[in-house]
Amino acid sequence: MIRIERRIEANPWWTAGTLVAALVAGMLASALIVATAGADPLEAFRTLFFGAFGSQKAMMTTLIKSTPLILTGLATVIAFRAQIWSIGQEGQVFAGAMAGYLGSQVLSGLPPLLFFPGVILFGVAGGLLLGGACAILKTRFGVNEIVSTVMTNYLAIYLLSYLLAGGPWAEIGDGASYQQSVPLPAAEHLPLLFGTKLHFGVLLPFIAAICGAVMLDRTALGYEIKALGTNPVALGHKGTNIAKTIVVVMCISGGLAALAGVIELYGVGHRLKADNLVGLGYAGIIVGMIGGLRPLGTVLAGLLFGGLASGAVSMRVVSDIPASLVPAMQGIILLFVLCASVMARYKIVRGTAS
Amino acid sequence: MSGLFQEAILISIFAATLRTMTPLLFSAMGELVTQRAGIWNMGVEGTMLMGSFVAYFVATATGSLWLAVLAAVLAGAVMGLIIAFMTATMRVDHFVTGLGLNLFAGGITLYWFQSYVHGGPQPSFSGFEDVPLPFLSDIPFIGPVLFSQRLLTYAAFFIVPAIWFLLYRTRYGLELRCLGENPKALDVKGLSVPVRQYGAVMFGSAMTGLGGGFLMLAFSDRFIADFSAGRGWIVVVALIAGNWKPKGVLLAVVAFAFLEAVATHAQVVGVGVPRQLLLALPYIASIILLMGVRFRTGQPAMLGFPYARE
Question: Which residues does UniProt call coiled coil (chain B) (predicted)?
Fold first, then answer.
């Protein structure tokens, strides 16, 4: 007889196995979705993965596309590990880009060694304040963080739209496109790494992931974050100021997401424009969750989805399949991974109950 | 400004309030049933978006608006089935399930939409027209506001008492409220908790699908990305602000709809305020509203807690 029993301790092999099974099942379901739209799934996946990992150039694009996803993924990890369901990453990416752009107007003309750290701090501060504001709404006023972060996402998007559509930061003049700023001067583009096409920002997610892993596993704050997620009552009895911890968590999370926005502005887009930012925050939620809410898992998931994002471009060109297949796939895979994360807590045993 | 002009504007704002209220009200009453059954569904936005897209697809492909309404309701029910499977059967966290579903719906509707249009000109349809009721619509002021609306808006007038009756005056409603307060009581009586939760979530999501369908068929003639634009989240806010009671939720929905109607009219009249600020008003109002709501007496005790027998 075969029964299903709850595990007392997680088995890493079984956990990894359920995750891989979920990825495969998600791919199969995505193939079905491709077929519903009348396209050839095999052809879609072939061009998608070739475009993502098929050449050195493709892999560099993958690395660049993964950078913001890993950062917003880490922002998700920090918040969700504390069971704070912040989905403000999208708005914080926008806030980071806007505050970072403001920084360029203040700091313009400084030597690069001061300019880039300066504008990055500006950007991070933008997301940090937005995250912190939602945290205070939660701790002081009891406003559910999911709802408040959704609302602030819309506010950040509308603010950027106001600033760029005829507002103070709009590009004016002949041939100016709608809803974007003037391009940044070349001196204000993030420097490239050793003659490659990679900007310096691609290093940040890896540094952030290592810091995040150390913080979660080796520091008092990390302990408090995990305890907030698993047993907030006990944490309160221990004498930890829970409200303060929530504010700290959401500030760190907001700062990380904002870092994605400011890096995208100075490293890739080189001008403030919503099209360059949209979806990075929401995709980060998926990346963080598929990464098992662990920093290193998030790096892997971010590389995978960054790859799909870069492969989507060539898939559209070669196979004429819309690039929006990638967000659709992300959503489908996420649903399977969520189910797998529950299955990882159970085991299949033979024989009767002991 | 002449008095006649002012009256015309007022009539237009109130009529628009009722029109704007319709999709929110269908969805809010459906989700009220879902949440009273203990499922804290955060996937309202995604469900509504799916309803809107399916309505668009069926309306342009078949040319039948009522078929499109039916399809939107079915699409909502299917989304509800996914939510119910994940929350009641798999017992995934309710918040995470909803977030996942929203991201899924956002991605897949965009993919289907782009595949459907395929770079060509976007098919459009002509939506529902107003159906003025004979005699009643001739009453001054009240007539054009109340009785010159779309058919589904008239239906929305009856949905609040109907849901109230279902929840408080039927056996099924009693069981449903029990699901949210004390599911164990049902379980020990031998009544299946998951079966009732599936029913409640699928009903609620079907209503949200209907709301999304109406949003598409009465307000637009084509689909765009993120078409529902946060209205599903407004419904979630309305449930909390309305303290999980039909009348309270109705009041919250009317307030939001009125705000949106005022904002769209301010745009048309040309008030010297940035357009984006007017568009952002419902979201700012949501935050302020939730800051002011200090009572949560109506929140079902087991809302958001997956039920397990052991």
Answer: none
CA distance A330 to B173: 38
- What one-character-per-residue DSSP string does B245-284 give? -HHHHHHHHHHHHHHHHHHHHHHHHT-SS-HHHHHHHHHH
Alpha helical stretches, state H, B118-170? 142-146, 151-169
Q: What is the mean pLDDT of chain B?
A: 90
Taking an 8 Å cut-off on Cβ atoms, the answer to whether B103 and A151 are in contact is no
Tell me how far apart the alpha carbons of residues B307 and B233 are, in angstroms, rounded to a whole number: 25
Judge whether A243 is closer than 8 Å to chain B, CB to CB. Answer: no
Chain B, nearest residue to A332 by Cα: B104
Q: Which domain holds residue B263?
A: 3-122+133-292
Determine, yes or no, domain membership for A55.
no
Q: How many domains does chain A have?
A: 1
Question: Is residue A5 domain-resident?
Answer: no
Q: Which two tokens stand for residue A337?
A: 């991974």
From chain A, pick out residues whose CB is under 8 angstroms from the CB of B287. 137, 143, 148, 151-152
* Contact call for B290 and A39, based on CB within 8 A: no
d(CA B95, CA A342): 14
Whether B192 is covered by a domain: the verdict is yes
Residue B180: alpha-carbon gap to chain centroid: 21
Distances (CA, A) of A136 to A13, A145, B291: 40, 10, 11
Query: Three-class SS of residue B5?
Result: helix
Residue the block writes with tokens 């809107």: B52
User: In one letter, which amino acid is B180?
Assistant: G
Displacement of CA A60 from its chain's centroid (Å): 19
What averages of pLDDT result for each successive group of 10 residues across chain B (310 residues)?
74 92 97 96 96 97 96 98 94 88 93 88 88 86 85 91 96 93 91 94 98 94 90 92 92 92 80 83 89 79 82
Q: Which of A323, A330, A347 is nearest to A51 (CA)?
A: A323
Provide the domain limits for residue A168: 67-283
